[in-house]
Every structure is written in structure tokens, then in C-alpha cells.
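Exercise 7.
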Amino acid sequence: MINWLLTATSDGATRLQALILIMGAIGALMMILQTASEVSDIIKAHGGNRELSAKAE
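Solution. The predicted structure, written as C-alpha cells, is:
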């Protein structure tokens, strides 16, 4: 298992580095989705989109 993770791929990076990169990308995506969810909750708490767009005008 360890040898497989440390085996270099064709571009020279190890599989372990690729795995860490993928996990980081998934983590970043989850943070973006969490932020979007919180923003959505804030908009709902303020009465939805119609009220906010009426205030902007």
C-alpha cells in the first residue's frame, strides 16, 4: 500500500501527492457550498429575493 502511494506517475508526481491535491480540491468545494448555503439562509431570513431587490431600487 505504501509503495503504491509513493510510486511516481508518468508526470513525476507521486500518487500520494495526487491524493492530497484531490482531497484539498474536495475540501475547497465543500467550503464554497457551505458559504453558498449560509448566504442563502441569510437571504431567506431577510424575506427572500423580492424584498432585497426592492430595497436596491
